[in-house]
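Handout, section 3.2

Students often ask what a structure token actually looks like in practice. Rather than define it abstractly, here is a full record for Glucose-1-phosphate adenylyltransferase. The first block is the sequence as you would receive it.
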Amino acid sequence: MVENRRLTRRAMAFVLAGGRGSRLKELTDRRVKPAVYFGGKTRIIDFALSNAMNSGIRKIAIATQYKAHSLIRHCQRGWNFFRAERNEFLDILPASQRMSEDHWYRGTADAVAQNIDIVDSYDVDYVVILAGDHIYKMDYEIMLREHVETGADVTVGCLTVPRREASAFGVMAVDEAGRITSFLEKPADPPGMPGDADHALASMGIYVFSWPFLRDLLVRDAQDPESSHDFGNDLIPAIVAGGKAMAHRFDTSCVRDEGAPAYWKDVGTVDAFWQANIALTDFVPELNLWDRDWPIWTYSESVPPAKFIHDEKDRRGVAISSMVSGGCIISGTEIRNSLLFTEVHTNSYAVLDHAVVLPYVTVHRNARLRNVVIDRGVVIPDGLVVGEDPAEDAQWFRVTERGVTLITQDMLDRRAAP
């Protein structure tokens, strides 16, 4: 265990947080996907950052690009406790044409390549490349240990998924020792795992390298005019073909309750985002946010406790099988199987059922909202009914294939316009 901790002290985490996440539609009109809210009080990026910190990594860089203000502000407020005098760092690295005036970050590998001098200054032996837009809990120490013990050029974090579902991922074909023999991007016929033809290994977008090896690779890739400068498209396939690439199975490093399944979610669509948040209201959710041994750190606003008022027939402030965050005022509203973020205020005779309500939303009287995602700061007008007539809802709001309705203030303003 001592050596594990020493490995994390010799490592840094480089978090890729520049992608928009366009499948989340209007939820990423004003913020990048890693800055999207999740779980009542956190942001998506908090999971990768918390995993790094809980694993013992104290040197972290975050590469940003698309509409990064919300993400940068969140990190400045919630992740400002690193102390340089203790050899701890959290650097935010916006795309700033540091190597050329002709381009910003051209791909995931280029985002690291443009900051080689900054990574050099960290004086680390290993770099853990992380995607900043997934929900999971993972001990990176275990993956680092495996990387060193196998002598790999790169170790790729892999999910075990049903083979019939693996076509949506980059898929690893591996031998009995776990060495990657081929990397296939969204294959029509994914290869099965050794000894388990019904499952496949899908890339998590998590990579461990020794820094000297990765540095040389990035320099060569930056000079290749045919490269798209992307880890998944260029660097990893090249190592598979000419080096030693090993697969690390997430099952072995996932942080979870005893007997619970390995939890990893890409909340990259409105349906997936809604489902993952609503699932937190289950009696025993698969994702344990109450785990004090592996906390998910975030920016916590100073707000009063949630408040429930009125106790009359049809006008009772009540929440059943729901999560209600600090600062909420539930005034005569019936709430079921819903998740309310900070400072949501609801009014009398309203009903929320399977609703994901982002911060600072106001729900006025007599509104009935079912199977909805409501963006930050929205004001729901008196008597609005959503979730009962899909055809009517689709005229004004975004309705998904699964029947979830996304509501933003711009949509409501267009609906109210003469």
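Discussion prompt for tutorial groups: The chain has two domains: 7-281, 307-416. How would you have guessed this from the sequence alone?
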